[in-house]
Design brief:
It is found in: Membrane. With 258 residues, this protein is mainly α. The protein contains 8 helices and 2 strands. It folds into 2 domains: 9-126 and 229-252, no CATH class; 140-211, no CATH class. The chain has helices at residues 15-30, 35-52, 57-81, 98-124, 127-137, 142-171, 180-211, 230-252, and strands at 87-91, 94-97. A two-stranded antiparallel ribbon has the order 1-2. A hairpin with a 2-residue loop joins strand 1 and strand 2 (94-97).
Length: 258
Amino acid sequence: MNVSSAETWLHKVNPSLKLCALLVLCIVALFIHDLNYMMNVTIGVLFLFLCFTGHSMKRILLLSIPFCFIFISTSLAMILFGKGETLWFEWGLISITEESFMRGLLVGFRALLFAALGLTFSLTTRPVNLFYSLMQQVKLKPKYAYSFMAALRLIPIMMEELQTIRNAMRVRGFERGKGIRSVYYKMKAYSIPLLSGSIRRAHRIAVAMEAKRFTDTRDRTYYYEFGFSIKDHGFILYFIVLLLAGFYLSVHFPLLPI
């Protein structure tokens, strides 16, 4: 599957700064209780997500399907079973009020905002760049950063080993069994080789990292050097303007009359 994408200015923003800014925005969103303000901020983040992640619209919409389902399910749970004074509809356990409807939309847009921020970060940030930036700007210890990077590199190796074991089992007719006992033997046949292989690889990585002096010292050179540029200032300025403009529009030009 081809997952290539075009590189935009978001890809060139410092990964540590990007992570901190998006986390701060998530915390700010938790304290936004005005629906119009939340909708304005969510629209601004969705604009960034749709236009500047560098992926095709088809792929972006495909990735957005689970989060749209979360938006709908979260909103409906609050709308259909919430409490309020202005009753709109009631049937059995279902009770829709004006207050529950507004709160449901607020919770749904908040969940959509979190999803858009997470996807924007994951689609525009490479894990290796993130860990290099954390070591250089946040002063994360190299032994932890390189351990995480090594673990990420092991995931495709483990998937390939799992496929090899599965093919071997099929050749030997081991996959044809049925019933609970067959499931137990299959789990045992898969888990033991994978676990033993993971232990051996982890030991080799630990020895290699110790031999290359990946200790607590932070005085080391890096193949990738990360700093700050005008794109980082533009990234921060975008969210500052988004929060201020969103508040202004929510007061003077509300999307919903509340």
